[in-house]
Design brief:
The chain has 337 residues and is an alpha+beta fold. It is built from 8 helices and 11 strands. Helix 1 packs antiparallel against helix 2.
């Protein structure tokens, strides 16, 4: 890094250094522990009873520490998702269940917003379609920060809710659903998009009213004709909307490429936690029992209110990450025996 003069190169090298340093530190720590063992064994066999007893105690402590250090090194050397540290695009959409599904989509988005605050991430809403009775039919936001995608990628899928809706007069429990998609937003997305493949429409922004909303066709809708992907942005500036919509389109096209590669690479690992299959029901939120169940790892928790507030979402995310790490270690062992 000291020899680099180009700003972009310095940033790239800094990131590479930050990724490699934990690996180097863990390997050196393991090396030091392994190097101490022969010396302690020699001391334990010495004629000095007091020194030998101390050496045996240290050797036992060393042996207890060794498996954890080896596991840490193996985990750091296991194949990683290259988008682990990327920011992300978060999309939440109401599914089956009408008004209640839109209300639940609103609850989910609020959960992620509050979780983002606890992580020090920034959330910027790109587009929103509100539900008739509240909540959201659809909301798309950029979540910016370190390691966003690595922690939120397991949220992709169908989230099911069981509760008595506010719109239910007879107190019956309804089952509704919302879908969540989390797409990586790497800083350097190199996707070629030809102008002739795009249809760009402008339309009037929807909002709380006011002269600007009523008179200006500022919102932008871009359709990528080869894939039929549609992205929108509906802030006040049409120029800004076009730039944000193009960025969102690149992210979606990147995600398509990423999914195709993942599918080709891991056809034999369909049970993988991080597969992100958005058609799969991944979690159920049962309000009458205060219960949250993640169906992928058979995890059931009874702290639903804290999870919905975002403060206990790590109680779900951490076991999913641990399961994914175990799967990556297993794949590494299969590959290298």
């Amino acid at each position: 890094m000291g020899a680099a003069t180009d700003g972009t190169e310095i940033v790239r090298l800094s990131k590479e250094h930050a990724e490699l340093k934990p690996v180097a530190d863990a390997v050196m720590a393991l090396g030091r522990v392994k190097a101490e063992a022969p010396e302690l064994e020699e001391m334990a066999a010495s004629g000095d009873p007091e020194m030998a007893a101390l050496a045996r105690d240290e050797l036992e402590a060393l042996k207890d520490k060794l498996p954890d250090l080896e596991h840490e090194v193996a985990l750091l050397l296991a194949p990683k998702d290259k988008d682990e540290n990327a920011s992300a695009i978060l999309e939440v959409r109401a599914g089956t269940g009408g008004d209640e599904a839109a209300l639940f989509a609103g609850d989910l988005f609020r959960m992620y917003q509050r979780y983002a605050q606890t992580q020090g991430w920034r959330v910027e809403i790109d587009s929103v379609s509100e539900g008739d009775a509240g909540g959201y039919k659809e909301i798309v936001a950029a979540v910016t920060g370190d390691g966003v995608f690595g922690r939120l990628k397991f949220e992709s899928g169908v989230h099911r809710v069981q509760r008595v809706p506010a719109t239910e007069a007879q107190g019956r429990i309804h089952t509704s659903a919302a879908t969540v998609a989390v797409l990586p937003e790497p800083e350097d997305v190199e996707i070629e998009i030809r102008d002739q493949d795009l249809r760009i429409d402008t339309y009037r922004s929807s909002g709380a009213g006011g002269q600007h909303v009523n008179k200006t066709d500022s919102a932008v809708r871009i359709t990528h004709l080869p894939t039929n992907i549609v992205v929108t942005s509906s802030e006040k500036s049409q120029h800004q909307n076009r730039a944000r919509a193009m960025k969102a389109l690149k992210v979606k096209l990147y995600d398509m490429q990423r999914e195709a590669l993942d599918s080709a690479r891991s056809e034999s690992r369909k049970s993988q936690v991080g597969s992100g299959d958005r058609s799969e029901r991944i979690r159920t939120y049962n309000f009458p029992q205060g219960r949250v169940t993640d169906h992928r790892i058979n995890l059931t928790l009874y702290n639903l209110p804290k999870i919905m507030e975002g403060e206990a979402l790590d109680d779900v995310i951490n076991p999913l990450i641990a399961e994914d790490q175990a799967a990556r270690l297993a794949a590494l062992e299969d590959e290298f025996g």
